[in-house]
Design brief:
about 130 residues; alpha+beta; 5 helices; elongated; four-stranded antiparallel β-sheet
Length: about 130
């Protein structure tokens, strides 16, 4: 997202809920005049900011989501849920390995963590 754009201002100054609410209403005439935007451009830039905020939230919520004992030394390794380019989710370990399994939702990936590492691996969920 380019700096000094309406999308960047929306990203920096609004919550996800505020942007979703804005899209439910008619385009804001003050915003359009200030940023020299058409109604379609106004919506597109809000959608761009909304997508970036959702992506950031998703990344924050799923990085280092849990830890396991990686080997006999009981070295702790983090687990993260990441999103593939096709939109599906996968689990990556702190050692850079990822599971071949792909999941439709984050919740499905969490269930996958439980299935794979729930017994005997010292699985601990992050708070």
């Amino acid at each position: 997202m380019d700096d000094n754009t309406f999308a960047a201002a929306c990203y920096n100054q609004n919550s996800i809920q505020e942007l979703q609410d804005a899209l439910r209403n008619s385009p804001d005439t003050t915003d359009m005049k200030t940023w020299n935007l058409t109604p379609d451009e106004w919506r597109a830039q809000i959608n761009q900011a909304l997508s970036a905020l959702k992506e950031e939230l998703n990344e924050t919520m799923t990085k280092n989501i849990a830890t396991i004992d990686h080997n006999e030394k009981k070295e702790r390794v983090s687990l993260s849920i990441l999103q593939d380019s096709d939109g599906r989710y996968y689990i990556e370990t702190g050692s850079g390995e990822d599971t071949e399994a792909r999941f439709k939702t984050i919740e499905d990936a969490k269930k996958g963590i439980e299935t794979i590492w729930g017994n005997g691996w010292g699985l601990e969920w992050a708070v």
